[in-house]
Amino acid sequence: MAEASNFIWYELMTGDPAGAAAFYGAVVGWTIADTGEQSAGGVDYRMIGRSDGGHAGGVLALNAEMIAGGARPVWLGYLHVSDVDKAVDAITADGGAVQMPAIDLPVGRIAMVTDPQGAPFYIMDPLPPEGGGESDVFSVTEPQHVRWNELATSDPDGAVAFYKKHFGWSQEGEMPMGELGSYRFIQRGDVGLGAVMPLMEGYPVSAWNYYIGVDDIDRARDAVKANGGTITNEPMEIPGGEYAMNAIDPQGAPVGFVGPKK
């Protein structure tokens, strides 16, 4: 059996990269380039830098044509696959859809798809980076990395079955949410990737939400408010003693943050 897929990249689509750079710089500590790399067909793409010198993902500037086509500010994750075209065929055969057909980029082959419930994400077969090594954009513990991947979906049972089948994940353990159902944990091997939950009020469509690690949740909450973001769920204690919160960045992309109270 093929190795289970990991999240290997995260991308913020936004109409205001400079505004996003100021916001995430203040809240997370990231550095986002002032100008975009024009390599991918004239698209404005900017790398997100961490304090340790690594990358946390990228920023895709939405242009007028993309916005006219329905693109909106959003965070999207990339899942590793060994054969993008084969994965696209399998996903569409199982009720998923193609948002962007497979294309070759200097960094590898990618496609944007949705799961059968409509949640979008990328799949990617990356070219090996110089020096080798696995992507470290996802970390269970570290600030300035995405630490938790949460899928809110119209059909949790169907979604769990889909990701187990196509990406080799497991689903063990859950937390009851009362009348809303269960918060079901998903794993890649022995690593907790995140969770699958039912759609709640205010979530009109199925979507992935990503929780970015911060050094201090109270400082991050204050920074969200001071830099034009909106808190949609105040910091709440989670198993293990840390805190998670939800927000909308100033450009309109939903995002989560997780970290300790200091």
From TrEMBL:
It comes from the Bacteria. One of its GO terms (molecular function) is dioxygenase activity. It holds the Pfam family Glyoxalase. InterPro entries: Anthracycline_SecMetBiosynth, Glyas_Bleomycin-R_OHBP_Dase, Glyas_Fos-R_dOase_dom, VOC_core. The keyword Oxidoreductase applies. Residues 6-126, 142-260 form the VOC domain. SUPFAM superfamilies: Glyoxalase/Bleomycin resistance protein/Dihydroxybiphenyl dioxygenase (SSF54593). CDD domains: SgaA_N_like. Keywords: Dioxygenase, Oxidoreductase. This is Glyoxalase/bleomycin resistance protein/dioxygenase.
